[in-house]
Amino acid sequence: MTKSLKALCVLFFALILLSGCTSAKRSALKTDFSADFSAGYHGQKLCGNLTYNRQGRMNLRINSPETLEGLSVGYCDGELRLSKDGLQCTADEAYLPYPSFPAQLKDLLDEICTEEENGRLKLSDGKAKIGEWTLCFDSEGYIKSLESSDGKIVFENAEALI
User: Fold this and answer.
1) pTM for the full model?
2) Taking a C-beta distance cutoff of 8 angstroms, is the pair 93, 83 a contact?
């Protein structure tokens, strides 16, 4: 009886240990990050810096084209903040038209986080599909690019947010 009880205890311990390891395993995708980006979106060519976290806070700073240089678009708790050359305005984020680059990018990053949290994001060979967009990521889990018929966004120099 003691041998079978010991074997049962060992088996039970192994099951607990293995199930604990698999439940703690998460996708390697880093969604709280800062990165430089270049984008071709609906015929526009944009470059700048992006900071995003899974709570839906995003700050997008445009460096080019020259006409938009210095424009900053921020989202925080449903509020949109636009600033350029010392001028700043705020509004509900719903006021920014959906096909605009910042609105589309924020919605896409929010969807990536939601799909990942719900276990529906299928990461395979450095790629995943999010609606009509293809997400590519590197071996460290940083998003390298997002691509669809609307355009392509390439991220470089990514760093995790602490």
Assistant:
1) 0.79
2) no
d(CA 97, CA 121): 27
- Strands, DSSP E only, in the chain? 33-41, 44-52, 58-64, 72-76, 79-84, 87-92, 127-130, 133-137, 143-148, 151-160
Give dist(CA 97, CA 89) in Å, integer.
16
12: number of Cβ within 10 Å: 10
Other CB atoms within 10 A of residue 95 CB = 10
Tell me the CA distances in angstroms from 105 to 11, 13, 57, 108, 115, one per residue in order: 48, 46, 12, 5, 15
DSSP state of 124: B
Model confidence over 54-113: pLDDT tens digits? Answer: 898 999 999 999 999 999 999 998 899 999 999 999 999 888 887 889 999 999 999 999
Q: Cis omega (within 30 of 0) on the bond before 97?
A: no
